Structure formats: C-alpha cells, structure tokens
Amino acid sequence: MTKLNGNKPLDRNYFRYKDKPTKEDEKHITECCGQDKEHHVLNVNNEDEWKLIEEHIEKYLREYPSTDSITPVVCEECGRLMEYISNLKLDRKLPGDK
Hints:
The protein is an alpha+beta fold.
C-alpha cells in the first residue's frame, strides 16, 4: 500500500495511472482531433461501430420526419465520430407565411 503525501484529491488521473506511471510530457489527447485518448467513441473505421452509426441515423430519420439528412462528422485522420449534423426540411410553412 502506498502512502499519500498530504491531502491529495483522488481524481481520474490518479486511478488511470496508478499502476502505470506516465511521463509528465505525455499527452492525453489525440494530436489530430484533440479528443481524450481514454474516452471511447464510435469509429467509422470499425465495421461494427459503423453499423451502429448507420442504425442510429436510420432510426432518427424514421422518428423525425422533418429531418432531411444527417451527416456524421468524423476525424479525417483517425476516424473518431465527432458529431452529427442534421439538415431539416424547409418545405414547412410558418404562421404568417403566404
């Protein structure tokens, strides 16, 4: 059992690197898209995860008929899913429109 020096908070990094010490200059984010390396997100380069992305988009398009299309925005270098961009149909008339 290791003894802590003083009152130190036990944060995520403490448990993440408890058994595997890291270098101080080691970066915890990806260089290409600036995302946390330890945080798992869907990746378009993985077939199973690409199917999950497709299923999510298909389900969303069925549930929300006012949505015209959805674009998954991914990192060009590593393939990590960053966000979805939805395009809404503009054929609806608002009150007061002629």
